[in-house]
Amino acid sequence: MKLDLVEIVPPDFDVDVTLAYATDANLTGRPVYRNAECWLHRDAAEKLAVAIALAKPLGYRLRIFDALRPSEAQWALWNVRPDPEFLADPRRGSPHSRGVAVDLTLLDADGRELDMGTGFDAFTPLSHHARTDIPVEAQRNRLLLMGLMTSAGWDFYRNEWWHYQLFDARRYALIADADLPRSMMQPR
Q: Is 41 annotated to bind ligand?
């Protein structure tokens, strides 16, 4: 399979890459990825570059928690927490497994994450967009992130303040670990 993937790394992309699934601080309790490499399809990478450019003059940077997620990783998450409110069923395929979704937050000028009302991957209704029962500052921060991302051409997922994807995600092929230039997954 010919993939049109771009590695998301500084200095090409002025972002902080902190892949949650390369650590044990995720819903599985162990690293899912052996290699903390951040990939996106070229179409998504171009829209990410626009979001980065929009955030910069406002004094913000993006922190990426996840981007391309091989199909095997989607299964690893689903096997621990088969919750369709927060995870795409791997039988249907996730936009992450197509390289056209990104999970992220905003950092201030000092490199601190903005308060978003919940942490990344908090599988709770409080993670849904437009919640008014979180602090007003967190509501503003979510709207700021949404404004930057949607202005850059991304669609949002209503249940997760951190998740953005291309509008036509299903037109992209699913990507397995074996399709990647270098394996991301932990050996079984």
A: no
What is the token pair recorded at 127?
Answer: 């993670």
By annotation, the residues acting in catalysis are 160
Pairing of strands 61-66, 15-17: parallel
Global pTM value: 0.96
In a domain, 188, yes or no: no
Q: Is 96 annotated as a binding residue?
A: yes
Total domains, the chain: 1
pLDDT, tens digit, for every residue of 27-72?
999 999 999 999 999 999 999 999 999 999 999 999 999 999 999 9
Residue-wise pLDDT tens digits, 98-149: 999 999 999 999 999 999 999 999 999 999 999 999 999 999 999 999 999 9
Q: What is the CATH number of the domain that holds 26?
A: 3.30.1380.10
Give CA–CA dist 15/33, Å, rounded: 19
Q: CB of 55 within 8 A of CB of 89?
A: no
CA proximity to 161, closest of 135, 122, 187, 132: 122
Q: Is 24 annotated as a binding residue?
A: no
